[in-house]
Amino acid sequence: MSPKTPKKIVGLSTNQKTLKRVLDVVLSITLIPIFILPIGVLIIAASIDTKGVGLFFQNRVGQYGKVFTIIKIRTFNETGEVSKYSAIIRKYKLDELSQLWNVLIGDMSLVGPRPNVKRETDLYTSEEKFLLKVKPGITDFSSIVFSDEGDILKDHSDPDIAYNQLIRPGKSMLGIFYIIHRNFLIDINITIFLRIQ
């Protein structure tokens, strides 16, 4: 399933990792004030649409297996149903904007493998565990390749089984590829591509 992964992860140097963190902090501090109003509108709209709290908090597994709480705009109601409005929010990844806070406090990076819940990381192969070597991100290659994840899963009776069979293997391969080859040019290209999608 996963590509052969070298024993030593090739990627950013110590100085580059420090610079990446500095850029994460600077960009999140810059973007949060810009998006605070749209995020507020999305939270209110999500509260009305889902008839619940507009924010969704969930434990995810981050770097080195550390569990953290991810913050998302709620896109489902108490029965787990996703409305047409929420489907649009998901399609354009607007529910991820609140994760800028996770970036600012250091749980996540702007670009990196997407974080999974523990029940999924418990199924990781030895190769997939390399995904936990770096901070998870708001976006990465899998956000581009699997942008239609909801459509892939919607017709399956058990979305969790379908996810682990159809999507997780591909996401893991892309995440490992990113870790091995990551650099600022790749990060910039991923960010630009998502903006023009």
Layout of strands and helices, then pairs:
Blueprint: H1 14-50, E1 55-61, E2 67-73, H2 84-91, H3 100-104, E3 109-111, H4 118-121, E4 137-139, H5 141-145, H6 149-153, H7 159-181, H8 184-196
Number of domains: 1
Strand order of the largest sheet: 1-2
- What kind of sheet is the major sheet? 2 strands, antiparallel
Order of helices and strands: HEEHHEHEHHHH
Mean pLDDT: 86
Figure out the total of helices: 8
What does the overall shape look like?
globular
Low-pLDDT runs of 5+ residues are: none
Please estimate the helix content: 40-55%
Strand residue content: 5-15%
Q: Compute the separation of the termini in Å.
A: 28 Å
The chain-level structural class is mainly alpha
Radius of gyration: 17 Å
Query: How many β-strand runs?
Result: 4
How would you describe this structure in keywords?
about 200 residues, 8 helices, mainly alpha, two-stranded parallel sheet
Can I get a quick summary?
This protein has 197 residues and is mainly alpha-helical. The chain has 8 helices and 4 strands.
Overview of the structural elements:
The protein is mainly alpha-helical and 197 residues long. The protein has one domain (14-196). 51% of the residues lie in helices and 10% in strands. The chain contains eight helices and four strands, in the order H-E-E-H-H-E-H-E-H-H-H-H. It has helices at residues 14-50, 84-91, 100-104, 118-121, 141-145, 149-153, 159-181, 184-196; strands spanning 55-61, 67-73, 109-111, 137-139. The strands form two sheets. Strands 1-2 form a two-stranded antiparallel sheet. Strands 3-4 form a two-stranded parallel sheet.
